[in-house]
Every structure is written in C-alpha cells, then in structure tokens.
Amino acid sequence: MSNQNSEPAPRPVDEIDLALLRALQADARAPIGTLSDAAGVSRATAYARLARLREEGIITALTVTVHPKRVGLGVSAVVLIRSTPDNWKTWSSMLPILEAMDEVEYAADLAGEVDLLLLVRLRDVEHLQRFVTEELRGRIPGIGSVRTLLVLNQTPERSLVLPS
Amino acid sequence: MSNQNSEPAPRPVDEIDLALLRALQADARAPIGTLSDAAGVSRATAYARLARLREEGIITALTVTVHPKRVGLGVSAVVLIRSTPDNWKTWSSMLPILEAMDEVEYAADLAGEVDLLLLVRLRDVEHLQRFVTEELRGRIPGIGSVRTLLVLNQTPERSLVLPS
DNA sequence: GGTGAAAGATTAGAAGG
DNA sequence: CCTTCTAATCTTTCACC
C-alpha cells in the first residue's frame, strides 16, 4: 500500500464517476448493467470508467466489510501516541511497520497534541495489553506517551459519503 | 445501520467462511468460482455460505473504497470530544444524528479521558471549521471540550485482518 | 451440510463505428 | 460514448452422498 496523501489529484472525477462509485458503495458485486444504469451510461462506458478509476487509484479497493465481533475480534481500541522530540521516525518510515501489524486497521499522523493515532482490532483485552507493551513499544522508536482508549460502541464501518 | 456492538455472536465462523471473506477482501467483484476455489469448496457451497454470511450480519457491506482526496475531500480530521456530565446523551440516541452527518465516516464511544471520537472527511479547512462550530456544537448536546486534530498522513483504508 | 451436474438467463469483455 | 457480438459466468434446482 502506498501513502494516501502523497500524490495530488491530476484529473477530478465527474458526475458519471461519482454515480458509479455510489452504486459500487451500495453493492460492490452489482453487475455492470446495474452500475451503468445508475450512472445513465452504457455498459461499455461503465467498463471504461471503472478501469480508469482503478488505474488512477481513485478506487483503492473493492472489499467486504466484516462485523469484527463475529470473526473473533471482540475488542476495538484507539491508541493515542505522543512522540519524544528525538528519535521519532518520519511517517514514511513508520508506515510499513504499522501496516505489517495485523491489529492496526487505521493509522493517522496528526497535527496537534497527539502525533499518531491508531485504530486497532483485537481478540480480547489480553491481546490489547500484549499489543501495546510488546508490539508498539517494541517496534516503534521514539514513543513518548501512549494512551489507550477502549471502544465501547462504534458505528459500523462505512464508506466515504461522496459529495454531490 | 444498527449498532455494531449490540448483538452477541451466536455462531462462530469456520475456516471456510474465513477463506471466503479473505477472497472477498482481496476482490469483492471476484466471480463465485474464484471464491469457491480459494475456500476449497464447490460453487454451490460458496453460494450458500455467502448467503448465510449476509443474513447473519457477518458481512456488513460489500463496498468500494475511494481515495478521499481524489473525490474532493481533501481534508481529514480526528475530533476528540469530552462531555459535560449533565445533558450528555446516550450513545444510542446520538448514533442516528452522527450517521446523518455526511462528514462523519467513523464514530466511537470511548472509555477514558475522551468520550467520543470522530473521523471526519471534509472538502477543505473552511468546511472543517463550519462542521465543528455549526454541525457539531449545534446538534449534539452536552459537549464539553472539542479538540480537532488535522490528519497529515494516513494509511489507506484497509479491511480487518481476519484471524487465521 | 456438502457435492456435482444441468439449465436458461444474464453478464462479461472486446471490436468496431 | 454507443451498439453489437460470442464466450463466459451466474444462479437455481436437482438427486445423491
């Protein structure tokens, strides 16, 4: 995976692209005919558009969203990390490390009182403890403080709401 | 959408289910034959399993993941909210309000020094300002402090890493 | 439960205007 | 961007293990 903020947007998407993306958000397995109807274009056009959206990286992935608890990941947590001024790695050097951790679903480099935020998915609280003490402090240099916030309730994962 | 933490897991998924889910994570538009091959079962079985996974809510959605910047959402931010002890609504009463806000991609009710975390996607910084001052403070009662952290860099959205 | 086969209907993917 | 084409795939249903 590449850094999501690195490349600028060369060509903006138009209304047809947005309609296709919205239709895919509703059902990624919808047949092309359904998608093309939703966008008001022919199937061939929908094909061409989808290929372009994939090539240009506008479509990051076509995936399934899974209920975490039902697959053995009963605990979610938000980890807020502050760095020590020295020995703190750059984002680009940490990215591969973070992505190699199965527990990390989302990581963000922040401006403000917190330097790094992680959303992690774990089997249980013991798993959380091991993750923070061993994985995190062991592998990421320059960690100052770590605050772990248990998730009590959360929205189901949802896609971006595309602008109109 | 329903609360993701409300229902217990009645029946656990098995290895075949996990294999199907992993194949769908890689490509949600993969033909059934590809999915059934990946899981080592027949197509008929893959059909039956997928129907069951949908019915039981283990599959939350089959969606497309989009690069936010390329669709006009150039700014991401994390909003940390602390409540005032009085007038703070319950999670279940806030959920529909939060889900009605297009800017909110993810919301979590937290245990700890922060009560509510939002991941928001916005067009620009002006949009962020309007969101925090008007949408948030205007619609959610009982907000104590609001800390807004700009996202400088982030991982692309990624699916859960399913356990083995 | 899972299998393999059969069946028509639908869709995919490419070619050409 | 559309229409047209053939091969491939979908999806259900079946009898059987």
From TrEMBL, chains A, B:
<keyword id="KW-0238">DNA-binding</keyword>
<feature type="domain" description="HTH asnC-type">
    <location>
        <begin position="13"/>
        <end position="74"/>
    </location>
</feature>
<dbReference type="InterPro" id="IPR019887">
    <property type="entry name" value="Tscrpt_reg_AsnC/Lrp_C"/>
</dbReference>
<dbReference type="InterPro" id="IPR011991">
    <property type="entry name" value="ArsR-like_HTH"/>
</dbReference>
<keyword id="KW-0805">Transcription regulation</keyword>
<dbReference type="Pfam" id="PF13404">
    <property type="entry name" value="HTH_AsnC-type"/>
</dbReference>
<protein>
    <submittedName>
        <fullName>AsnC family transcriptional regulator</fullName>
    </submittedName>
</protein>
<dbReference type="InterPro" id="IPR000485">
    <property type="entry name" value="AsnC-type_HTH_dom"/>
</dbReference>
<dbReference type="InterPro" id="IPR019888">
    <property type="entry name" value="Tscrpt_reg_AsnC-like"/>
</dbReference>
<dbReference type="GO" id="GO:0005829">
    <property type="term" value="C:cytosol"/>
</dbReference>
<dbReference type="InterPro" id="IPR011008">
    <property type="entry name" value="Dimeric_a/b-barrel"/>
</dbReference>
<dbReference type="Pfam" id="PF01037">
    <property type="entry name" value="AsnC_trans_reg"/>
</dbReference>
<dbReference type="InterPro" id="IPR036390">
    <property type="entry name" value="WH_DNA-bd_sf"/>
</dbReference>
<dbReference type="InterPro" id="IPR036388">
    <property type="entry name" value="WH-like_DNA-bd_sf"/>
</dbReference>
<keyword id="KW-0804">Transcription</keyword>
<dbReference type="GO" id="GO:0043565">
    <property type="term" value="F:sequence-specific DNA binding"/>
</dbReference>
<dbReference type="GO" id="GO:0043200">
    <property type="term" value="P:response to amino acid"/>
</dbReference>
